[in-house]
Amino acid sequence: MAFAxxxxxxxxxxxxxxxxxxxxxxxxREWTFERFAELFADVEFLxxxxxxxxxxxxxxxxxxKPYAKRWAQFGVAALRKAYSExxxxxxxxxxxxxxxxxxxxTIPAGGIDRVQAAIDLHxxxx
Length: 126
Hints:
By secondary structure, this protein is mostly helical. The protein contains seven helices and no strands. It has one domain. It has helices at residues 2-11, 33-50, 58-63, 65-71, 76-92, 94-101, 114-122. α2 packs across α7.
């Protein structure tokens, strides 16, 4: 086994073995406000639809048909982190709130449910 590994490292260009604790190579994926809004809306829609907390929704996003096409390239950890970031952005960034809910929902006296507005704008609603 060690000899085969040595031969591969020596003669196969680009051959590496990544251990379980190493990070993936390359630049991290960039998340736009639109992508954060889509994730937030999909998670909130699934929370309302199936009554699950966000902790049990990640498998649904990665496996079920319409959601898997949108989210399968991400792992559970990446989706959790991005959802957490989207919730934080919602509280702290007015520009993100405009993308998430639309301009009508950002008016304080409008009386519009902002989460429902986000679901209507960005969710797949499968």
